[in-house]
Amino acid sequence: MPKLTLDRLELRGKRVFVRADLNAPLDHDTVSDDTRLRAVVPTLQYVLDAGAAVVLASHLGRPKGQVAPAYSLRPVAERLEALLGRRVELAPDCVGPATRERAQQLGPGEVLLLENLRFHPEEEANDEGFAKALAALADCYVDDAFAAAHRAHASIEAITRHLQPAAAGLLMQQELAALGRILQAPERPLVALLGGAKVSDKLALVEHLLERVDALLIGGGMAFTFLRALGHDVGRSLVEPARIETARRALEAARRRGVSLVLPVDAVVADGLDSPAGRVVGVREIPATQAGLDIGPRTVERFTEALRGARTIVWNGPMGVFERPPFAAGTLAVAKAVAASAAFSVVGGGDTIAAVTQAGVGDRIGYISTAGGAFLEFLEGRALPGVEALTEAG
Questions:
Q1: Tens-of-pLDDT digits for all 394 residues of the chain?
Q2: Quick check: is 350 catalytic?
């Protein structure tokens, strides 16, 4: 069902609880990458411009349900002040009398950032009492944290039983629209490109995508389990023995459905990650003492050709150990091929976004998702608690 959106709310004079994903990396007391902060600014600006006050909430890191100064949101408040051009006050806690009193005093255009939600174990436990205390701080709820939408936490799921209406923020709307465009009515051919280390991390995704895509390209470490399933010796390359039979079934399912499942035909091999350089061999000729750490140039050509004819592309996971320069060429070449395609492309996952950025083609990708786990679970067809909990559009 379509969900209620921010533009449908009457905001003037209200206190709006905005759940965001401000889980930004810190360098001591400074935000070192403000990408996630910038992503939520349009929603915050919209609410403030509409004459409302913002009670802003997020988690940061994994403080394990205890107050830990290293995980304070103070650096986030300071960076948000610069991005918004207005004061962002940090509350002493996310619940409690002092925080409730400050929230009740908020006037239009003011922003109160609650301290780290995960300082309380009740957040991750989806505790009703904790959710009710959060709900008491505001008049309505906006979720703009798609990256956390796969978690049934108190500020994401339980709070909506105590604070209505519950609407999707602008970033959440963008994510749902872009991913929905892939799953519900994609322009065809639809090509999925999967990489990363382990096939077990992407198994449900492979099975789900095989029912929907016209072609599935598999690179990265996960490709070697599929190559082993075809009977190839792959040396010391990463293989998950327990998943070989599952990979074999996926290959058979692709053949049965007429889906083109494309695997590497060559690889860049080396003795290990610290090797100063690798060499290209066919996947049938990987030495017993070496491991495949990137796709080779012939595989890049095959993948590029498959991407060239696509009308919709979804990509998650690098093609090799791209953070090491000797093994980055395949991933960067694929990033450029995705960008050069005329297709609508959606890229998600931290490593994949880093690769697109490193290749300098971020501005030519159709949509870059801020999410990792939620991105994968949505593509797997799983219901996300943070989306399900939102009010249905009337």
A1: 689 999 999 999 999 999 999 999 999 899 998 989 999 999 999 999 999 999 999 999 999 999 999 999 999 999 999 999 999 999 999 999 999 999 999 999 999 999 999 999 999 999 999 999 999 999 999 999 999 999 999 999 999 999 999 999 999 999 998 888 888 889 999 999 999 988 888 888 998 999 999 999 999 999 999 999 999 999 999 999 999 999 999 999 999 999 999 999 999 999 999 999 999 999 999 999 999 999 999 999 999 999 999 999 999 999 999 999 999 999 999 999 999 999 999 999 888 999 999 999 999 999 999 788 888 888 888 899 999 999 999 7
A2: yes
Active-site hit among 51, 107, 350, 360 = 350
Pick the catalytic residue from 3, 15, 36, 202. 36
Q: Distance between CA 247 and CA 263 in Å, rounded?
A: 12
- φ, ψ for residue 309, nearest 5 deg: -90, 0
Instruction: Decide whether 6-171 matches 178-379 in CATH topology.
Output: yes
The active-site residue out of 132, 373, 381, 382 is 373
The pTM score is 0.87
C-alpha 14/C-alpha 170 separation (Å) is: 18
Active-site annotation holds for 373:
yes
| Cβ atoms within 10 Å of 281's Cβ, excluding its own | 17
Active site residue 198: yes
Q: What is the DSSP code (8-state) at residue 196?
A: S
Instruction: Mark whether 311 is an active-site residue.
Output: no
CATH superfamily of 6-171: Phosphoglycerate kinase, N-terminal domain (3.40.50.1260)
Could you state, in order of their start, the residue ranges of all structural domains in the chain?
A: 6-171, 178-379
Q: Of the residues 198, 236, 248, 324, which is catalytic?
A: 198
Hey, what CATH topology would domain 178-379 get? Rossmann fold (3.40.50)
